[in-house]
Every structure is written in structure tokens, then in C-alpha cells.
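In this supplementary section we document a worked example of the pipeline. Step one takes a protein sequence of length 246 as its only input; no multiple sequence alignment statistics are reported here. Step two produces a three-dimensional model, which step three serialises into C-alpha cells for compact storage. The input and output of this example are shown verbatim.
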Amino acid sequence: MADHTQALSFGAAAAEYDRFRPRYPEPAVRWALNGLPASAHVVDLGAGTGILTRGVLALGHEVTPVEPDPGMRAQLAAATPGRTALAGGAESVPLPDQAADAVVVGQAYHWFDREPAHAEIARVLRPGGTFAPIWNIRDDRVSWVAELGRIAHLGDNAGDVTGKYADFGPAFEPIETGEFPHHTTLTPDDIVAMLHTRSYWLTAPAERRARVDQEIRDLLATHPDLTGRETVELPYRTIVLRARRR
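The serialised model returned by step three reads:
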């Protein structure tokens, strides 16, 4: 079962989370929802501040966000005109049976208690509907990005995702995997602020936070690929796992 203390730590930094976390590249969102009718009903489960909700809305679909953290729900409402997230989680989705054409999850599936979550997701999906968790994962094949992950205890590389989840349970067909290149452009201060939205930093003691911050600033100031740079391109691999409901 996931650590729900960490999972519910983000609300304290909701505005910063929404500002600094990367968006999802349009090709990845399109691939996740490929084959759905126009203006499909999509549930964004663990919607956070609405980053993925807004990406799905931009494709013309109807979206119902569901999020357990009240701070994140408030930020979603502020940043996503016309949308208010329902209070709920993956293990108890506040929607009727077969209400959705698709369920997407941005950056949150690893927090789910998977067996009851799979049953709930299958319940709210129509037969043939799509379930698609999506992750923006830093590309740690780049040396300074790997070092950043080591310092900040990020531990969410692509291998963890593509190798860890073999299936979504008996209600779903086999998983298909898509991968899409992506990057964000940030200042060194932005990178530090972005890392302040991570669960490890949010739940760490003050002394450990200060040590992480200093090591990150030293990396950004001294790594040969970064020295003297006013902005930095932080590369990502956007991973999508997609399966149809049987």
C-alpha cells in the first residue's frame, strides 16, 4: 500500500506545484485517449492541481477531476476555469457505474492501493473504455539529471514505471506502452522551487531540506553542462501505460 502521508503532502505547496511541475505533451495525451469518440467523458483521477485535466480539456473532451487533497482541489479550481474537482480517491471514486469513456492518471498511479483502485476504475469505465496512467519522468540518461535525482532522492526513473506494472488486473486487457520526449525550460531557482514540490522534500526535516537545497545549488553552479546558464532545459521522458476495459 502507498504511503498516504507522502501522497497527501502536496497540498501545502499546491500553487508552486501547479507553477513548476511540467505539463504533459499533447502527443502523449492524444495517444493515451486514442480511439475515443469526440467530446468523450474523461475522469482525471488524482487530478492534483489540474495539469492533466487542462491538457485533456484542450483536446475537446469533457473532464471530471477527482482529487483527495483539499489544497490541491482549491488550486485546481483557481487555475482551471469552470472546473471543480470532486473529493475522492482511486479506491472510492464518487461516480456511478460506467460513467466514463476513459480514466487518466497524471503522476499519481504509484500512490494507489492498486487492487481496490483497479476494481473502482473498472466500475466507472464503460466496456471498452480506456485506463491510462501518465508520468513525466526526468531523463536520467543525462548526467546532471541523474545527479539531480540522486541528491533529491527522486527515484522515479522510467524503468520503475515500465517494468513495475505488468497489468491492471483481470478487468483490463494487456497494457500498451507509449513514450514521448519532452522538456521544460527553467532557471536554476525554478529547479530548486520545483523540487520543493516533491513529497520527499515536503516531508523531510528542516536540516535535510537545507542540505538537499545546498547540494542542488552546488550542482547547478558547478556542473560543466550548466555553469553560467541563466536557463536550463530539463529533459523528460513522458511514459503512458494504456489498457482497455474488457
